[in-house]
């Protein structure tokens, strides 16, 4: 198969299976942005793999994506609690008491984010405010996507810890 045919074949595979594979990965990692990054990684790995002996490219692609999601889960397991989910849960809780202190909490989180080291703060803002992918953030800041992920995890850990601390303060009599 020529390079042009191979590229067209991969392009068609991407067009036909992108949505279903993204949904699969989103269910696995519970974060659409992470799923997009893993989807891109899966196609890059497929592109660089020896596909000559692969009978079913779709199945092979799913195997790659599944392995990437397992690797991602293992990295999160090492980290412990999924800080992003914990932070979202805490920030989405509503009660009259929580509503009364919401402004203070947001001010506190803003100060906390402003106090993060420069690359960590920039990564957090680009990921959560501008909703850029790890790859795009890495390109903008000159960082490897894995370094972007580490900075984002660090920022989320700090925010989650501050939210828990603030929550514990408001729960005390």
TrEMBL record:
<dbReference type="InterPro" id="IPR007627">
    <property type="entry name" value="RNA_pol_sigma70_r2"/>
</dbReference>
<dbReference type="Pfam" id="PF04542">
    <property type="entry name" value="Sigma70_r2"/>
</dbReference>
<protein>
    <recommendedName>
        <fullName>RNA polymerase subunit sigma-24</fullName>
    </recommendedName>
</protein>
<dbReference type="InterPro" id="IPR013249">
    <property type="entry name" value="RNA_pol_sigma70_r4_t2"/>
</dbReference>
<dbReference type="GO" id="GO:0016987">
    <property type="term" value="F:sigma factor activity"/>
</dbReference>
<dbReference type="InterPro" id="IPR014284">
    <property type="entry name" value="RNA_pol_sigma-70_dom"/>
</dbReference>
<dbReference type="GO" id="GO:0003677">
    <property type="term" value="F:DNA binding"/>
</dbReference>
<dbReference type="InterPro" id="IPR036388">
    <property type="entry name" value="WH-like_DNA-bd_sf"/>
</dbReference>
<keyword id="KW-0731">Sigma factor</keyword>
<feature type="domain" description="RNA polymerase sigma-70 region 2">
    <location>
        <begin position="13"/>
        <end position="77"/>
    </location>
</feature>
<dbReference type="InterPro" id="IPR039425">
    <property type="entry name" value="RNA_pol_sigma-70-like"/>
</dbReference>
<feature type="domain" description="RNA polymerase sigma factor 70 region 4 type 2">
    <location>
        <begin position="109"/>
        <end position="159"/>
    </location>
</feature>
<keyword id="KW-0804">Transcription</keyword>
<dbReference type="Pfam" id="PF08281">
    <property type="entry name" value="Sigma70_r4_2"/>
</dbReference>
<dbReference type="GO" id="GO:0006352">
    <property type="term" value="P:DNA-templated transcription initiation"/>
</dbReference>
<dbReference type="InterPro" id="IPR013324">
    <property type="entry name" value="RNA_pol_sigma_r3/r4-like"/>
</dbReference>
<keyword id="KW-0805">Transcription regulation</keyword>
<comment type="similarity">
    <text>Belongs to the sigma-70 factor family. ECF subfamily.</text>
</comment>
<dbReference type="InterPro" id="IPR013325">
    <property type="entry name" value="RNA_pol_sigma_r2"/>
</dbReference>
């Amino acid at each position: 198969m020529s390079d042009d045919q191979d590229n067209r074949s991969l392009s068609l595979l991407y067009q036909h299976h992108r949505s279903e594979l993204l949904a699969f990965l989103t269910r696995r990692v519970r974060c659409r942005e992470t799923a997009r990054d893993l989807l891109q990684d899966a196609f890059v790995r497929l592109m660089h793999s020896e596909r000559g002996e692969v009978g079913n490219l779709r199945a092979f692609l799913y195997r790659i994506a599944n392995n990437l999601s397992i690797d991602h889960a293992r990295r999160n397991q090492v980290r412990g609690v999924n800080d992003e989910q914990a932070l979202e849960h805490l920030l989405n809780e509503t009660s009259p008491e929580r509503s009364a202190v919401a402004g203070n909490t947001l001010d506190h989180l803003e100060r906390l984010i402003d106090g993060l080291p420069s690359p960590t703060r920039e990564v957090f803002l680009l990921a959560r405010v501008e909703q850029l992918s790890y790859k795009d953030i890495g390109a903008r800041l000159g960082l490897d996507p894995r370094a972007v992920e580490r900075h984002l995890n660090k920022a989320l850990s700090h925010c989650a810890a501050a939210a828990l601390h603030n929550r514990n303060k408001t729960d005390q009599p």
